[in-house]
Amino acid sequence: MTSFTHNIDFFGGNTFAQEPIYAVQGHILYTFQSGIWMALGGLDFVGGRTALNGVNSDNEQANTRAGFTLALPLDRRIQRRRCRLTISWGRWLLRKRWPEYVR
Fold first, then answer.
1. Other C-beta atoms within 10 Å of 96: how many?
2. Residues 44-67: pLDDT tens digits?
3. Of 24, 37, 87, 89, whose CB count within 10 A is highest?
4. CA proximity to 92, closest of 35, 39, 33, 48
């Protein structure tokens, strides 16, 4: 858990604040009898808008990502040795400020 508090001495006595960032993520894992395993995962978060001296900025953050992992055993006798291939993709969205980046 990450927590943000007001910074009351931000560059010469200014007050800087940041709202919480809310996130949810999930994973699905499947292990084959051969020791190979694969996983699918997803993440979504939103929030983090900042304020300087009580004036809100229009900089809320949002991100959605998905990923795939495939793990192959290198030595069947030692299950901890694996070669992993990970693929991740996603989109970084700044929801209101820069709509040209939202495709």
1. 12
2. 888 889 999 999 998 888 888 888
3. 37
4. 48
Please provide the DSSP assignment of 61-94 as one string: EEEEEEEEEEEEES-TTSTT-EEEEEEEEEEEE-
**pLDDT, mean over the chain:** 79
- Does 93 have pLDDT greater than 60? no
Length of the chain: 103
Which amino acid would we find at residue 10? F
Residue type, 88: S
Structure tokens at 36: 């190979």
pLDDT at 78 over 50: yes
Sorted by where each begins, the domain ranges of the chain are 21-101
Q: Describe the chain by its helix, strand, coil percentages, rounded to 5.
A: 5, 60, 40
